[in-house]
Write a structure and sequence with these properties.
The protein contains eleven helices and no strands. The protein folds into two domains: 44 residues, Homeodomain-like (Arc Repressor Mutant, subunit A); 132 residues, Tetracycline Repressor, domain 2 (Orthogonal Bundle), CATH 1.10.357. With 227 residues, it is mostly helical. Helix 5 runs antiparallel to helix 7.
């Protein structure tokens, strides 16, 4: 009986590296991500990765570019406020697709070609909604503050965030924090959509409770590595 030949190994490519890197970061976290671990997952030496990305930082930049490339940024046109809303919701959906990578995305300067072009396109939406350049720039920054904070909170905060060495007991909270007790239910994940909508509506000047756009997204429980 003839022996089976091993299946041919897929050639290493930037797309394969990015997909594997996103999966590794999702599984083990950004803090411990290394090209050595990535090489092991890809069954190659770490040095092979550097043929495609000159350094770990170049690879991380490529991961950020991949993630922001999934954000829908409509072209300026009629109903500029609604176009902005679609962009903000799409950005939030991106953060939910890449929760383990998002802490890097949130603080990255985006000062690579795809990054600055992304910023340029988003600024064009703000300029279309607010023709005054100074006001548009300030609104871009204010909305960015909210968006980064909201996405970090939803992907990394609350039960996922760091804890005190000696957390207070539920009995302490019941005895001393009546406002926290009254509010706690609304901090739960099932309320995040309504809370996010209130923030967007407040910032963009739309009536609270307006129907939010529903971009096509995966569940926030699932990872999309090479979407």
């Amino acid at each position: 009986m003839a022996s089976r030949r091993p299946a041919p190994r897929l050639p290493l490519s930037p797309d394969r590296i990015i997909e594997a890197a996103l999966a590794l970061i999702h599984d083990e976290g950004l803090a411990v991500f290394s090209t050595r671990k990535l090489g092991s997952r890809l069954h190659v030496e770490a040095m092979s990765i550097y043929h495609h990305f000159p350094s770990k930082q170049h690879l991380l930049d490529a991961l950020v570019e991949h993630a922001i490339g999934t954000v829908e940024v409509p072209e300026p046109g009629p109903h500029p406020q609604e176009r902005l809303r679609r962009c903000l919701y799409s950005y939030r959906a991106m953060a939910q697709r890449f929760p383990a990578l998002f802490p890097l995305i949130a603080v990255h300067r985006l000062n690579m070609s795809k990054g600055v072009l992304f910023i340029e396109r988003v600024l064009a939406l703000f300029r279309a909604a607010t023709p005054d350049a100074e006001t548009a720039a300030r609104q871009f920054r204010v909305v960015g503050y909210y968006l980064a904070g909201a996405c970090l909170d939803e992907t990394s905060g609350y039960a996922r965030g760091p804890s005190a060495a000696e957390p207070v007991s539920n009995e302490f909270i019941r005895a001393h924090c009546p406002n926290l007790i009254a509010s706690a239910a609304f901090f739960q994940e099932q309320h995040w959509d309504r809370t996010f909508e209130l923030g967007v509506s407040t910032l963009l000047g739309a009536p609270a409770g307006q129907q939010a756009p529903k971009p096509v997204t995966g569940s926030r429980k699932k990872r999309s590595s090479a979407a």
